[in-house]
Amino acid sequence: MAPVEISWFGALCDDDYAQLGVADPSLASSYGHCAAIVHEAERCGFDNVLLPSGYTLGIDTTAFAAAVAPTLERIRLLVAVRCGEAWPPQLARQLATLDHLLGGRLTVNIISSDLPGQTLASASRYGRTREVMGIVRELLDGRSVQHDGAHYQLAVDPPRLATMSGRCPPYYFGGLSEDAREVAASDADVYLMWPDTEPAVRSLIADLRARAAARGRTLRFGYRVHVVVRETESAARRAAADLVRRLDDGVGAALRARSLDATSVGVGRQGELREASDEDGYVEPNLWTGIGRARSGCGAAIVGDPEQVLAKLRRYAELGIDAFILSGYPHLDECRRFGELVLPELDHAPLALR
């Protein structure tokens, strides 16, 4: 198996629990708590950390990234950017600054969700996303931009401050809708997907590869999934069941609905997986959908002993996955556990892109 990128998840969006749906003030998003997760991921040897973005949830991604970056030595940061929140030239300047704070280790997760207080039709929203991606890439590649689009009209030179490489950081981008797939094929570097069955993963990769090839491009592929790893399979399954033992279905529905992308095609697919699962929540061996009862978005976990989790990750890699973004509850504890039980057995390294 070729080396894959192994990333952890910084719980900036109030998404950290000992038991899902049961609030714990000590796990709420704060600089101290989220920085501790990032530092633990670096100590354990992870390659990257996704810093998610929300509006009503948690703390600001860009501000947190700027604060934590100088405290890090090796790990990359995958900073989520919601397209439309910042004027693209200013966004380019912010990203270049973050890249300098990280010594050239910035990666960017492009998010195409609605903005707070605004709802756009899918085609228009993804059209705005494509414009942002194109403008920012041109500026960070050092080229002047003259752009006359549906959402932005501007003529601007690149900011004085370039990234350390002089190139735009790689874009990680996901979405299942037709509009999302087209944007990924034309503008993304890494196509991210949420948990799905192995046949569905194979089919999705084939579809995106074909779309990118039709444009003379290639894509790398990322997989965002939770993990519950314990020394034995029975212990892992008990830990998974305990995560939702106190979850009230009404609370779970409210948690799923609070995200700005709660009605997206991707979120709908996570619901379909839960409906197709067995009575214990497993939709295929070692893939447990119960975690999606309490969160929008990524709604399944790889559950098992270290050998089973490792084997599952390797099967995804054989299907074409180049990067994994993992998480678990509580995030600090599961980061340490995965880092001790599984990560040393994986051949991994940051993705080499562009």
Description:
- The chain is of the alpha/beta class.
- The chain has one domain: TIM Barrel (Alpha-Beta Barrel), CATH 3.20.20.
- It has eleven helices and 13 strands.
- The strands form two sheets. Strands 1-2-3-4-7-8-9-13 form an eight-stranded parallel barrel, surrounded by eight helices. Strands 5-6 form a two-stranded antiparallel sheet.
- The radius of gyration is 19 Å and the shape is globular.
Key words describing this protein structure:
18% strand, alpha/beta, globular, single chain, two-stranded antiparallel sheet, eight-stranded parallel β-barrel, TIM Barrel, 354 residues
- DSSP E strands, number: 13
Tell me the fraction of residues in β-strands, as a range.
Answer: 15-25%
CATH architecture: Alpha-Beta Barrel
Structural domain count: 1
CATH classification class: Alpha Beta
Structural class estimated from helices and strands: alpha/beta
Shape verdict = globular
**Chain-averaged pLDDT:** 93
